[in-house]
């Protein structure tokens, strides 16, 4: 069945068909890139897969749980780094990770140990007891990465993992994601960064108008069309409908 399985998924918001006939499967050991233009339905799909919203129709499973019927069980098993989410302004990284550890049923010693190792890995040791409100965007993103992996989940959903990170930390996080997936976990990354997807993902799914339009294996490093070319080719039809031409703008 795969670590993540989606079949015939549909979700509308009023008259907007955000997701319409989405299908894909992600196996353990894969670092799967989810690419698509703005409004293609990526976040909506992730929200269904993590039990945050109910679909209108279709079947989804994550680690053999049904996120629609048992959202708490699904969320217990996965890690989630949502789009543009910040840690609570009124807590420090240490307090926040303690809180996440409790929710994740980890004992306090393990949380303390993992907090220290994540802080060291991503370089926020000196900020562990500083309120998030006094941390930079990049430092807050590091804490959000740590919370997603704190309980060493078998499946992790990440939206734009490298947002606000400096180039050095970006390299560390990329290497970490590759090794984490290789350890028999499924890492699902939604991103607009096609170069990064091409560099680190084992496979990518390209989404347009609420459905998967193509899947590509990218880890083999073989020549041929670049991922950017594939992306532009597959989403062009959707863009052409929505985006006015220069002549139309001039008129
Ligand atoms: N809560 C909501 N209420 C109404 N419409 C919504 C809601 N959430 C998303 N939509 C609409 O659903 C469509 C898909 O949105 P979604 O956020 O899933 O796209 P996305 O691929 O994640 O886009 P982006 O790359 O810009 O983050 C868009 O047209 C969006 O405006």
Can I get a quick summary?
The chain has 251 residues and is α/β, with parallel strands linked by helices. The chain has nine helices and nine strands.
Describe, in plain words, how this protein is organized in 3D.
With 251 residues, the protein is α/β, with parallel strands linked by helices. The chain has a domain of 172 residues: P-loop containing nucleotide triphosphate hydrolases (Rossmann fold, 3-Layer(aba) Sandwich). It is 39% helix and 24% strand. It has 9 helices and 9 strands. The chain has a 6-stranded mixed sheet, with helices on both faces. A 3-stranded antiparallel sheet has the order 2-1-4, with helices on one face. Strand 8 and strand 9 form a beta hairpin. It is globular and about 50 Å long. It starts with a strand and ends with a helix. Bound molecules: adenosine-5'-triphosphate. Adenosine-5'-triphosphate (ATP) binds next to strand 2 and helix 1. GO terms for molecular function: ATP binding; ATP hydrolysis activity. This is ABC transporter ATP-binding protein. It comes from Natrinema saccharevitans. Belongs to the ABC transporter superfamily.
Annotation keywords:
251 residues, alpha/beta, Rossmann fold, six-stranded mixed beta sheet, three-stranded antiparallel beta sheet, 9 helices, globular, binds adenosine-5'-triphosphate
Number of strands: 9
Figure out the total of helices: 9
In the CATH hierarchy, what is the architecture of the domain at 4-85 and 161-250 at level 2? 3-Layer(aba) Sandwich
Shape: globular
Query: What is the typical, i.e. mean, pLDDT?
Result: 91
Q: Kindly report how far apart the N and C termini lie.
A: 52 Å
Strand content: 15-25%
Low-pLDDT windows of residues:
none
**CATH-defined superfamily of the domain at 4-85 and 161-250:** P-loop containing nucleotide triphosphate hydrolases
Name the strands of the widest sheet in spatial order. 5-6-7-3-8-9
CATH fold-level topology of the domain at 4-85 and 161-250: Rossmann fold
Name the bound molecules: adenosine-5'-triphosphate
Q: What Rg, in angstroms, do the CA atoms define?
A: 19 Å
Topology order in helix (H) and strand (E) letters: EEEHEHEHHHEHEHEEHH
Query: By helix and strand content, what is the structural category?
Result: alpha/beta
Percent range for helical residues? Answer: 25-40%
Give the CATH class of the domain at 4-85 and 161-250.
Alpha Beta
InterPro entries: AAA+_ATPase (IPR003593), ABC_transporter-like_ATP-bd (IPR003439), ABC_transporter_ATP-binding (IPR050763), P-loop_NTPase (IPR027417)
Pfam families: ABC_tran
Keywords: ATP-binding, Nucleotide-binding, Transport
Family: Belongs to the ABC transporter superfamily.
């Amino acid at each position: 069945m795969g670590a993540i399985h989606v079949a015939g998924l549909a979700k509308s918001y009023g008259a907007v068909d955000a997701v319409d006939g989405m299908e894909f499967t992600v196996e353990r050991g894969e670092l799967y890139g989810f690419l698509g233009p703005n409004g293609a339905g990526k976040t909506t799909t992730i929200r269904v897969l993590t039990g945050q919203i109910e679909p209108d129709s279709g079947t989804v499973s994550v680690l053999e749980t049904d996120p629609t019927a048992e959202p708490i069980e699904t969320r217990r098993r996965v890690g989630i780094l949502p789009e543009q989410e910040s840690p609570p302004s009124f807590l420090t990284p240490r307090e926040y990770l303690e809180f996440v550890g409790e929710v994740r049923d980890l004992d306090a010693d393990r949380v303390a140990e993992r907090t220290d190792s994540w802080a060291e890995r991503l370089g926020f040791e000196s900020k562990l007891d500083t309120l998030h409100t006094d941390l930079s965007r990049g430092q807050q993103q590091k804490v959000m990465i740590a919370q997603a992996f704190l309980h060493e989940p078998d499946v992790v959903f990440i939206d734009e993992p490298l947002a606000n990170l400096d180039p050095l930390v970006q390299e560390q996080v990329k290497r970490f994601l590759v090794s984490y997936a290789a350890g028999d976990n499924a890492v699902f990354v939604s991103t607009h960064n096609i170069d990064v997807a091409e560099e680190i993902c084992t496979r990518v799914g390209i989404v347009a108008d609420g459905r998967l339009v193509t899947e590509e294996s990218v880890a083999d490093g073989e020549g041929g069309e670049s991922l950017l070319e594939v992306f532009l080719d597959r989403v062009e039809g959707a863009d052409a409908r929505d985006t006015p031409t220069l002549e139309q703008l001039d008129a």
